[in-house]
UniProtKB/TrEMBL annotation:
It comes from Oenococcus oeni. This is GNAT family N-acetyltransferase. Gene3D superfamilies: 3.40.630.30. InterPro entries: Acyl_CoA_acyltransferase (IPR016181).
Length: 92
């Protein structure tokens, strides 16, 4: 999925360093039960776990093809509702 400023693409293990750079910020986790990443291995584990999930994407800036976050789209057909969960690096 793509618009003028961002596109959503599957995360790859090659993004672990970029993912670690913004997920080491504890401010991103103020309202969640998760903790900031301590090392690149945390980022690799996160990517490997979430690559298995349907509708999980990295959020990339089109201009720089820079990873700035991630999102997951969930649809409950029985309840006829959807949910978007996202995390975006602090400057964005």
């Amino acid at each position: 999925m793509k618009n003028k400023q961002i596109n959503l693409s599957p995360l790859t293990i090659q993004e672990a360093k970029n993912k670690f750079e913004f997920f080491k910020n504890p401010k991103l986790f103020i309202y969640t039960k998760r903790q900031a990443f301590q090392n690149i291995q945390d980022a690799e584990n996160f990517i490997n776990r979430h690559r298995q999930m349907p509708n999980f994407f990295g959020i990339y800036l089109n201009q720089k093809q820079k990873l700035i976050g991630n999102c997951q789209l969930s649809i409950d057909k029985n309840q006829q509702k959807g949910e978007i969960a996202y995390s975006i690096d602090e400057p964005y």
